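Sample pair:
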Amino acid sequence: MNLTTMTKEAELVVDTCLSVKKAERVTVATDSVRRVEAEILASVCHARGAEILVVDLTPYVVPISKGRYVDPPENFKTLMKNSNLTIIVTSQEYSQRFSHKIHYFLNQTPECSVYQIDEEMGAWDFSLEDVEDIMAKGRKIMDFMKGKKSVRVTSPNGTDISFSIEGRECMPGLPVMPRPGMQAACPIPLWGELNWAPIENRSQGHAVIDGILMRWGSESAVSQPVEWNVKDGRIVEIRGGEEATQFRKTLESADPNAYIIGELGIGASPRAKLGTMQEKGRIGTVHLGVGSNKGVYPGGTNVSKIHGDGSIRDVSIEVDGTRIIQGEKILL
């Protein structure tokens, strides 16, 4: 572990992505695996004049490795409410699960916001030029899609699915956003994702999930594709191997609204890594979120006990009939 490189990348996060200011109250939440990353981030924040508190959530994070999510304690949530900025530096599988629960107890504002930090800080090989590249790609896609109505996603593995985003605003997750980045824990800095809540009863088609998939015991890359047939916004059939069975059981254990496509996410970052949680922000991928979208994604109306994602690789994306992305190439 190169502490010099880690410090340099921490400074990029603190100064460029988060713009931490003097006298801000900053809480850094971590676990035993990512403790060093958290302490370096906290030290950089302290050097900028912020008031720092580091909180170890290890007992709550550990169960995620066996597929069980445990919510952090109420006193931590109270601490978040009393902080100007909360930075989550834990297993990203845990921070992603927690991210979609934050809006139930915290309405984020510029004075109180939450972010999660991508794993392996110090090994990113990431610079200000990378930030600027992700921002430019994200803005180009987002600007073109403003006011558009329909999105079609296809892939070589057999995906062919369409969505309506008419009247729905984009929720960007980019490295540099005015606080709060979103009503969740915005992942930074490697991700670059653009998210919409598609109209809940209009998604139609066939999705072949060949990347990351949320299911019992894991949110990781699948060993074989999992196929969804979607009709009127709802998954009506799930096919595949053991991972398809796990995914089906996950939805069955939740509620009827868990089957609804609640999110359309388009990747914009060439630096997000395939095969990790970051994949959902990788250019050339689309991820579909099932379940709850109300309170996080603009215009979303679906309420469910769960929210989980499945990603599709090597996509082609058409917006109102115009192809805008082919694989990792933006055609605009």
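The longest strand covers residues 261-267.
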